[in-house]
Amino acid sequence: MIMGRRIHIVEVGPRDGLQNDPANLSVAQKLEFIARLEAAGVTRMESGSFVSPKAVPKMADSPAVFAGLVRNARTKHIALALNETGVRRAIEAKADEINFVLVAGETFGRKNQGMSPQESADMLAKCAPLVHEAGLPLSATISVAFGDPYDGDVDIGVVGNLAAQAQRAGIAELALGDTIGAATPWDVRQRIERVRMEAPDVPLRMHFHDTRGAGLANVFAAVQAGVDVIDSSCGGIGGCPFAPGATGNVATEDVVWMLHRAGFDTGIDLERMIETARWLERALDHRVSSALSRAGTFPRV
Ligand code: COA
Ligand code: ZN
Fold it and tell me: pLDDT class for 1, splitting at 50, 70, 90?
């Protein structure tokens, strides 16, 4: 049953998108980007991350971005955190939700966050009570869940084990993150099934990068497998500074167009999202990679 089934889009452009873009947007420009996304119907988005400014200089102004947000009851602003300092800073900044990053690869984990997979799970167990005491929803993303840029294939058992530990930590939602665009639709199905066995109580979200062209096919596989929440970035901007060659997320407007054409509902105004991607090209001073920002929608009326 497709007609009217709601797929929730989590817009990650202001965080995953901007963290690795060559452009340096001002706080005012980031706030304008966020406001335009809201006007296009986004109700949940990663608006910044609370990590070391030395590790990710482009997110150093996240406290100022959160302080400048025009809040409304509709929009949930998610803060990304990878350690206790980050969680405390995100709570202080009045994030509506915290998304914690687990890592499934050894070498990527060391380079990205100075942690092994098990250390990231231990850190989540330590941080979860802080988030729960603050009364905030806590979600988690398993990064490099489909492949590590340095070590290669990631054992599905490691992903399942992290999922089980995340469920025990009391998270409200778990994302499988394909940080480097290594997944194929068949892997997506397999990993979703495995995680559902290991963490049956946790709803799933999927996070795909389109590095090797399988992004939309992976979204299709996830939706077919019953996943209702998809991360995407306006324009398809983004990438991880610690993943060589990694390119942007699946583009919000491309995902939304595909889903709307099939009869799904996303709550996103496609035309306004395309306009926002075109505005973003001017703000970033370079082209963005999404197909719809070039081709426009179809049919035209
Ligand atoms: N926010 C701001 N500063 C932080 C911080 C945070 N969440 N966590 C640690 N720091 C600071 C410490 O105060 C310390 O500062 P100092 O050098 O001035 O004394 C320094 O960072 C090192 O702290 P340490 O606890 O030893 O961390 P680390 O060097 O092992 O790095 C992370 C761990 C997680 C902080 C770091 O790897 C990081 O921020 N990674 C982010 C990667 C990322 O965002 N990737 C993309 C999204 S997945
Ligand atoms: Zn990502």
Answer: low
**CA-CA distance, 165 to 140, in Å (whole number)?**
11
Higher model confidence: residue 211 or residue 300? 211
Residues with CB under 5 A from ligand 2 (ion): 16
Among the ranges given (38-52, 118-132, 231-245), the one the predictor scored with the smallest mean pLDDT? 231-245
Structural domain includes residue 300:
no
Is residue 127 annotated as part of the catalytic site, yes or no? no
d(CA 212, CA 187): 14
pTM above 0.85, yes or no: yes
Query: Is 233 a residue whose pLDDT tops 70?
Result: yes
Residue to substitute in 46, 52, 207, 233 for testing ligand 1 pocket (most ligand atoms within 8 angstroms of CB): 52
Is 3 part of a structural domain of the chain? no
258 is in which domain, residue-wise?
A: 8-295
* Catalytic residue (choose from 95, 216, 240, 283): 240
Query: Ligand 1: does its nearest atom lie under 6 Å from the Cβ of 50?
Result: yes
